[in-house]
Amino acid sequence: MRKRTSKSVGAHELEPISLSELIHHHVRAAIETAVHEELRAALGTSPYERNGVRRGYRNGAKARTLTGPTGPVALTVPRATLFNIAGTKEWTSTIIPRYQRRMPQVNEAVVATYLAGGNTRRVRGALQPLLKDAPLSKSAVSRVVATLKDGLEAWRTRSLADLDVIYVYLDGFALRVRSAGKVVSVPVLGVVGVLPDGCKHLLALELCGGESFSAWKGCLDDLVARGLRAPVLAIIDGNAGLRRSVGEVWPPTVVQRCCAHKLRNLERKAPKHALAAIRDDFHRIVHAASADAARAAYAAFERTWAKRCPGVVTSLREGGDELLTVFAFPKAQWKTLRTTNTIERLHEEFRRRVKTQGSLPSEDAAVVLLFSLVATGQIKLRRIDGWQKIATVLSQNTLVAA
């Protein structure tokens, strides 16, 4: 019996194609097929077809390179001339618009990498394995990121008349930005509203010179000018300018002072040996089971500390009844409404993102970044606790107004 010998592979045999090359090949074929079909529909005829409804004629082809998720794709796309009333015009594809060098998915990847903490250099480095030899210059990254500004401008000027905001959180925080060649700390005023379904909605982000009365009033006046109606409740910190502006712009709105901010104020005025006891007594007020129990705990706090720590009691009285406003609302919402933690957490996410850069290159870049983090969903705003009870709040508020 003769032995079976294996057939040798000749030099002319093709090398096995890799998975990425196979995908790349099919991407190219799919794009070219789609463009040819688009042109066929525009002309009303297939190649070499003769009929009476022709709307133009083919005019050769041209080579283009389009960068996509599989890297640069070398394409051969058709050219054509279309008939119109004025004579003729060159046909342009809507699938591959003129001058487009990258697929939308690539631009989205650039934006997502930037928002995740990358600067221009890091974006280029992170996407290089994906884009392979495709050019992605610093200026190209900057142009893609700059498209976020268009969304910001539309958001800043949009009408708010269709929003029914029930609660609103107002607070300020500082960002380090480069201004006039120097890195400075710039205050940002933030406003987050709560809608009837409990969802949170970012209403305003505004850079200003400070958290003054005029700055906050200008911010709130702009919201009113765009149609925002007065909310039922405003949750604020102890900033005097903010409190005054809320009172002037939204007279019917009741105010809840942030209990977390107030506790920090009390701790600054308390001796170290009394800190634990003061915290416990303050918590008995804000975590009371009812409004009556809270007022009783408030009175007990005054009796206990009036002589021992008069500065602490003076600070507590500065907050007054506005520390207890929350008890007029459904109990399921007390935890959410007694502090500005909702917007504080938003600020913390902002700071975490900005930390990767030390400082932002400009004030415009700061606001664009903060807005885009929320708009793209990289920072998510969840519903408030007890949102199902908002309908009860609205009915009660309607009866009071009547």
Question: How would you characterize this protein structure?
Answer:
With 402 residues, the chain is an alpha/beta fold. Helices cover 45% and strands 18% of the residues. Strands 6-5-4-7-8 form a five-stranded mixed beta sheet, with helices on both faces. A three-stranded antiparallel beta sheet has the order 1-2-3. Helix 8 packs antiparallel against helix 9 and helix 8 packs antiparallel against helix 11. The mean pLDDT is 82.
Any low-confidence stretches, pLDDT <50, length ≥5? none
Counting helices, strands and paired strands, the structural category is alpha/beta
Kindly provide the radius of gyration, computed on alpha-carbon positions and rounded to a whole number of angstroms: 31 Å
Distance between the termini: 107 Å
Number of helices: 15
What percentage of residues falls in helices of 4 or more residues?
40-55%
